[in-house]
Each structure stands twice: as C-alpha cells, then as structure tokens.
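Batch manifest, entry 17 of 40.
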Amino acid sequence: MRVFISGGCKNGKSYRAQRIARMQSEERGAPLYYIATMIAADHEDDERIIRHREEREGWGFTTIEHPRDIEKILHGCNPDGSFLLDSLTALLANEMFLPGGEINRAAGEKIAGGLLSVMNELRHIVIVSDYIYCDAISYDPLTELYRKSLAALDRLAAQHCDVVLEVAHAQTVIHKSIEERMVAGFEIY
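Output type: structure tokens
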C-alpha cells in the first residue's frame, strides 16, 4: 500500500510513518528501508536527525541516506520491501538550493519525474511531507516557488497513493483510503 502523510512540522508524522512502514514490512516479511533525505543545515537539524535515528533504532530499518535524485533509490534495494521516504520537504530543498548557492528552479519537476518512477516500481511506500504552503502570507519569489513546488509534489503523491493522512494537533485525519479497515490498524484515530 502507498501512503502519503502530510501536516505541520514536528508533530509526529515521521513516527506514524515509521509505524506504518514497519507494519507493512512485518505483514509481508519484507525488508524495511528508511530513505533519509535531510541534509543538516544547523544544530536543530542535527538534533532532529538524531531523534529520528533513535526513534527507529531496533525497528529493522536499513537507512539509506539519499538527499537528491530520488529515482536512484531503486538501485540496490529490494523493490518488494517496505519503504519510508522522509521527506519530500527536505528533498525539494536539497534539489532546489544546491551547494555553492546555485538555485535549480526546475527542482520540483525533476523530483516529480523521479517520484513517479519510484511509485511505479514500489507497491509499499510511505511518503512524508510538510504542508508549509497553506498560510496566506506572501513571500519573496524564490520562497513562493519552493512552496508552490512542494504543494505540486504533495498533490502528485496524494493522487498516486492509496491512503492520504493529515497529522495536525496530535490528530490524524484520513483524507483518502482504499479501505477503511486498512488504516484502522494504524491506530491513527
């Protein structure tokens, strides 16, 4: 099953995603992969990476650090495994804001193509993103491009996933599910 989880920052999306991916893996006796996309930019990012590693310690994840070129995760992994991609937000930042200050304004389109390739190959993937584009504030043109690109990627992921969840204020809302009983086991109510 393909699952998309979005919501506000730092609200438990990753932990819920880890539980879902592990459940999918255990049900099928399949390998479990954590696709880590974050490149730490500051101390806060370092702490978040450490917290996420500690949360999944002992869960059986094989962590693959993959901050760019998401379609390349298919090399060296068992496509029958259960995958957790955390997160589209970080992946877009990495692809758009390149080392040396270069800006890739087509990063959203690049990721969209790679994400579709990944989703066409993998039957069991959980994708995490942040909805940082939902306020009414106007930002500078580059920030607006980032926000619009992330919104487009989120729509693409939601369209191609079987289940779409939103995590906000310690609550999980099911926006799309192929079968209600399939998400009930995720203990998201």
